[in-house]
Amino acid sequence: MLILLRTAAALVLIAGFYGAHLGLAGYLLYQAYLAALAGGEPAQILLLFFPACASFLLWSVFPRSQLFEPPGPLLERARHPRLFAEIDAIARAAGEAPPAEVYLLPDVNAFVAEWGGLFGFRRRRILGLGLALLRVLGVDELRGVLAHEFGHYHGGETRLGPWLYRAREAIGRTIAAMARLSVLLHFPFLWFGKLFLLATRAVSRRQELAADAFAARLTGARGVASGLRKTHGANTVFARYLAEFVAPVLESGYRPPYAEGFGRFLSEGEIARAVEEDVREQLQGKRRTVYDTHPTLPDRLAALAALPESGATALPPGGDAPALELLEGVADVEAQMFERLFADRDHAALKPIGWAEAAVAVWLPSWRKHVRRHGSPLKGRTAAELGGLAADAARLGHLMTNDLGARAAVATLAEYTLGAALTLALVDAGWAMETGPDCPVRISRAGETVEPFALVRGVRAEPGAAAAWSERCARLGLGGLDLGGGAARQEG
């Protein structure tokens, strides 16, 4: 009953918003008409001001046509029968029609929507599934996500959602327009916009909890809760994976094994600990803001705890195998995804490359370019001096850049440059390099291993680490390696 009342309140606010726009615009035009009848110099000013305000209001509220932009490649039923069998099974259990179109996203996310049609009729259902999401979840957990999304169909949110979205857009345009035109008119609309967001996002949070409960009744609260924990954790480091690994490879003209890399990235020790710590912090009561569209993780898990662990569907156990295995030809699907996402940036011809090969084809040239740009203070400095250089990273960083930035920022620049320079020096001396989403940069030869970037951080932070490195350099004959020499070499 509460969610129905909140939804009704949102609809009333939408109607009130459009009514207030039209009423105020009409009133301003009427005042302009009266000013025209009165005549005189003040009337001429009002004849300009009132119609201008009315025009801004009508322009802001006028609905914009929206073309459907596929968020990724369209997945074909005949090509991926196992994935569609899972979708169809959840649709039958939910008593809902399956989506007409299923699209692949790069994200740790899923969504449903309805598009097209006229006045709500003949609209087609759309489902989006994240490739990274499929890599993170097991089949049972994916069923919980699918059931949650079908819960949105069942609750009618996909029909209300477009109206809320367009109203929010119109409110934003109105607030921006009034801010430029009139302070007096700006504040009432700003106040109304905040009220609208508070009301509609409270509705959105209740709808998410209702969809969770719907999914739990179908597939079991245990799988839904487990999927929530995994997706919340994976989302905390997803942007880092894109920035540190995927983006550099794409910018170099290559296409890495995207889903495999994300799985490896999550398994790396530091990343796994960061995910675990973030989820723990969320469970300890991380507060939401009043404008959040989703409940917090503790709120959602607490609501699921009161529901049965097993659901009403008679689906066979899916196991812990990655839901990604439901897709056929993952490499081909990834190629289609990148082609779709970067069609306007000439990325359609990206060359496939493995993560091991990317170490040489992508990271080494990138580090040489970086050291050429920032490493001039390292010319003539040797690996044996690394400890002293790292200890004075802030001063060294200021020498590396003309930007007199914050001390921490230039120290970080110096750390990274030293790590890159040591890596290049070792590789050029014949050491083998290994790196990837699941391991730090590691250089090895004859049973000896060096992690250059971790080493630089260590000699800065740990007493005695610099002396230990100097002794190791002497033992391995590395003391004379020129830290500035790797920048001059060009990759063939």
Which terms would index this structure?
18 helices; 492 residues; three-stranded mixed beta sheet; mainly alpha
Descriptive notes:
Helix content is 63%, strand content 8%. It folds into two domains: 242 residues, no CATH class; 122 residues, no CATH class. The protein has 18 helices and eight strands. It is mainly α and 492 residues long. β6 and β7 form a beta hairpin. The strands form three sheets. A three-stranded mixed beta sheet has the order 1-3-2. It has a three-stranded antiparallel beta sheet with strand order 6-7-8. The N and C termini lie far apart (69 Å).
Q: Secondary-structure blueprint of this entry?
A:
Layout: H1 2-38, H2 41-61, H3 81-94, E1 101-105, E2 110-115, E3 124-130, H4 131-136, H5 139-155, H6 157-181, H7 183-219, H8 221-251, E4 254-255, H9 258-267, H10 269-283, H11 297-305, H12 330-341, E5 351-352, H13 355-374, H14 386-391, H15 393-400, H16 407-428, E6 432-436, E7 439-445, E8 448-450, H17 452-461, H18 465-476
Parallel strand pairs: 1-3, 4-5
Antiparallel strand pairs: 2-3, 6-7, 7-8
Helix pairs in contact: 1-2, 1-6, 1-7, 2-6, 3-5, 5-7, 5-8, 6-7, 7-8, 8-9, 8-10, 8-11, 13-16, 15-16, 16-17, 17-18
